[in-house]
Amino acid sequence: MNFDPEYIKELVLDKIAGIIDEESDLFLKKLIAEDPEALKIYQSLHEQYKPEDLRRIEELAPANEALMWKTIHKRNSRRLWLRASVGVAAAVAVFLGVYLLWASRLSSFKDGQVAGNTGRQIMLHLPGEEAINLSGSQGEMKVGSTHLNNINKTLTYSSAMADNKTAILTVPPGKDYVVRLDDGTEIQLNAATRLEFPLKFSGATREVVIDGEAYIRVRKDEKRPFIVHLSHSQVQVLGTEFNVNTYDPGQEKVALVEGSVKMITENNSLLLTPGNEGTYTKQKGIEVDRFSARERLSWRNGLYFFHNATFEEVSKILPRWFGVEVIIENYKTGNSRFTGFIDRNAPIAQSLDLLKETNAFDYVISGDTVLIR
C-alpha cells in the first residue's frame, strides 16, 4: 500500500498522545496491519515517546486552540495523503517538530556548547533615578519613593511618584520578563523588547508603549480603556488577553486570544475577534487572518514553534533568543524549509544540531557569531 510517511507519523503521534479520533484510529490500525513500513514507523515512534510528553505539547495552547489545531492538522494531513509525491525529507521535518522539543529537554549537553551572550541584563529606568539591573537585584528594594519586588523574573511595585512619571523596562536578547502594572494588568515581555509605562495610572485612559513582542492580560476597567501604542498603530481594550509583535520593521501584529480589541492606525480601524490576528503594513493597511496559538504564543513557554519556515526566517529568531549574530554563507541554505521548535533554555548548538538533520548544512560558533555553511 502506498502512503505518505508524514501523514502516518502525525497519526501515530496523535495516537500516543491520546487525541486521535475514532475514524483516524481505525484507519491507522488497518494500515499498520497491512503495510510493514507503516508498522515500522509506528513501532519506532512508540519506542521514543511517552504519552505525557506529547500531551505537554498540546498543553502549550489553550483548550479551544488545541481543538482548532487538531482540526487543521487533520485537514492538512488528508491533503498531504493525496499528495503521494511528498518526500521523506518533509516527513523528517514534521517529525522534528516533536523531536526537537523533547530532545532538547532530555539529551545531555555536549562540552563547549554556547548558550549565547549572558552579559546583557534586564534594566529598569525609573524617572530621576539610576538604572536598576533586575537580572542581578532580586527580592524587595526601595528606589526613591518606589518600592520594587523582583522575584522569579516578575516585577511588582508601588510608587508615590507623580502620576505623569514614566518608567522604561528593557529586556535584552536571550531573556523574557513579566511586569504587573499599577492597575493589575500583567505584561509578559519577549526578548529584545522595550516597555514604557506610567508608575501610576490616572485620567480617563491607561496607556503604555511597546516595541518588540509582549503578551498582555488587561485588568478590566470599563471606565478607563487600556491603550497600547505601537510604532504605527494602537490597540484599545477594556479587559482582554492579546499578543503584540513589532519585531519586523514596517509590520505590526496584534493577535487576540479572548475578549475584543480595536486596532487603530492613521487611516483605518478594525475590531478583532478571538482567534484572529490583525497585521498592519503601510502598503496594505490592516489585514486579518486566523492564527495558531501554538505558533504565535509558544514563546511564552520558552519555545519558538515554526512550520515550513525558511532557515533565513528561523535565523531571525536566534539573535533575539541567544544574543548572537547569524551569518548565512550559502543562499540555498537560507531557502531550505524547516518545521520544529527552538528551545531558549537549551544551548544554541543543540537546536542547530537538530535543525541540520533535515537539511545539509554545517555551522561554526565563534564567540557571539554563528556562521552557517
Helix content bin? 25-40%
CATH architecture of the largest domain: Sandwich
Within the CATH hierarchy, at the fold level, what is the topology of the largest domain? Jelly Rolls
* Poorly predicted residue ranges: 55-119
* Shape category: globular
The largest sheet has its strands arranged as 3-4-5-7-8-11-14-15-18-19
CATH class of the largest domain, named: Mainly Beta
Mean pLDDT: 77
- The tally of strands reads 24
Distance between the termini: 39 Å
User: What structural category arises from helix and sheet content?
Assistant: alpha+beta
Strand content range: 25-35%
| Main sheet record | 10 strands, mixed
Supply Rg: 23 Å
Task: Please provide a written account of the structure.
By secondary structure, this protein is of the alpha+beta class. It folds into 3 domains: about 5-85, no CATH class; about 125-170 and about 175-295, Jelly Rolls; about 300-370, Phage tail protein beta-alpha-beta fold (3-Layer(bab) Sandwich), CATH 3.55.50. About 30% of the residues lie in helices and about 35% in strands. The protein has 11 helices and 24 strands. The chain has helices spanning about 5-15, 20-35, 35-50, 50-60, 65-80, 90-105, 295, 310-315, 315-320, 330-335, 350-355, and strands at about 125, 130-135, 140-145, 145-150, 155-160, 165-170, 175-180, 185-190, 195-200, 205-210, 215, 225-230, 235, 240-245, 250-260, 260-265, 270, 275-280, 285-290, 305-310, 325-330, 335-345, 365, 370. It has a 10-stranded mixed sheet with strand order 3-4-5-7-8-11-14-15-18-19. Strands 2-1-6-9-10-12-13-16-17 form a 9-stranded mixed sheet, with no helix packed on it. Strands 21-24-23 form a 3-stranded mixed sheet. A hairpin with a 3-residue loop joins strand 12 (about 225-230) and strand 13 (about 235). The longest helix is centred in the first third of the chain and has 20 residues, at about 65-80. The two termini are about 40 Å apart.
